[in-house]
Amino acid sequence: MRIGNLDGRLVILTGSGALDVQRASGGRFGADPQAVYDRWDEFTSWAVTQASDGAEPFDPARLGPPAPAPRQSFGIGLNYRDHAAESGLAVPEQPSVFTKFPSCIAGPYGEVVLPAGGHTDWEVELVAVIGPGARHVAEADAWSHVAGLCVGQDLSERITQLAGAAPQFSMSKSFPGFGPTGPWLVTPDEFDDPDDLELGCAINGDQVQKARTSQLIISVPELIAKLSAVLPLWPGDVIFTGTPAGVGLGRDPQRWLAPGDELVSYVEGIGELKQRFVAGPGS
User: Fold this and answer.
1) What does the chain look like in DSSP terms, one character per residue?
2) Do 201 and 195 form a contact (C-beta atoms < 8 A)?
3) Would you say residue 282 has pLDDT above 80?
4) What would you report as the CA-atom Rg of the chain, rounded to the nearest whole angstrom?
5) Does the pLDDT at position 51 exceed 80?
6) Of all residues in the chain, what percent carry a pLDDT higher than 90?
């Protein structure tokens, strides 16, 4: 099943278009895409009984983030060995966790303003959205707490990140538009193996990242187990699971996103994001 955010309204996406959930359910479920995660099991039990009658064609440019206002948004650093190597850092024994503040969450398509004087980098990632809340969850049970998966970009402003005595991961990765997700949420049952998906991205048609999620050092189920051992994961929380090698910081010479660049990011079986970058004030 594919769940979307169309003009701020919750929809089920079918082969014939988008089915408005509030209208189709007679008001049983509301229009807010974020609110549905609090009733995820009830919603999916209802949704699987729905026919595509009433679904309407739509312009994908109208899609927003599948979880637009998560209570918690996690980023995981150095979760592919080749990315740790290109960063010149050791592979962490435990998840390297930071926050992408929810205000940076954006939809799958649109413009991103580049911070003036910055070095903005790309990081394609698989994003997991929590369905039923998770606390002290065993790894073997973790997938049952995932509402679905989407494509994400953990855009990063490297000058801000590396300024000061300690890295500023959360601030550098939370500029407006620095957390595009989408184009929709795909439930785990849609994949032959949700732990082994190809992902990658290209700038102006030049592929810069390509890997498989089976290469994650800490898998999605293990991340959920380790995070939920420390704190509750709330319905609708978003987890950016880490990026593989190929980022601009690790290149020689280093490469940064520039005004006019188009970044296309994808995950197998889900879809793709498209961001175009524009100069910000003072550039």
Assistant:
1) -EEEEETTEEEEEETTEEEEHHHHTTTSS-S-TTGGGGGHHHHHHHHTT--STT-B---GGGEE-SSSS-S-EEEEES-SHHHHHHTT-PPPSS-EEEE--GGGEE-SEEEEEEPTT--EE--EEEEEEE-S-BSS--GGGGGGGEEEEEEEE--EEHHHHHSSSS--HHHHT-STT-EEEEEEEE-GGGSS-TT--EEEEEETTEEEEEEEGGG-SS-HHHHHHHHHTTSPBPTT-EEE----S--GGGSSS-----TT-EEEEEETTTEEEEEEEEEPTT-
2) no
3) no
4) 18
5) no
6) 88
Please tell me the distance from the alpha carbon of residue 132 to that of residue 142, in angstroms, as a whole number.
10
Is the preceding peptide bond at 259 cis, omega within 30 degrees of 0? no
Q: Is the pLDDT of residue 84 over 90?
A: no
pLDDT band at 57 (very low <50, low <70, confident <90, very high): very high
By the 8 A CB rule, do 144 and 222 touch? Answer: no
107 within 8 A of 62, measured Cβ to Cβ: no
pTM over 0.85: yes
Rounded Cα–Cα distance for residues 112 and 192 (Å) = 34
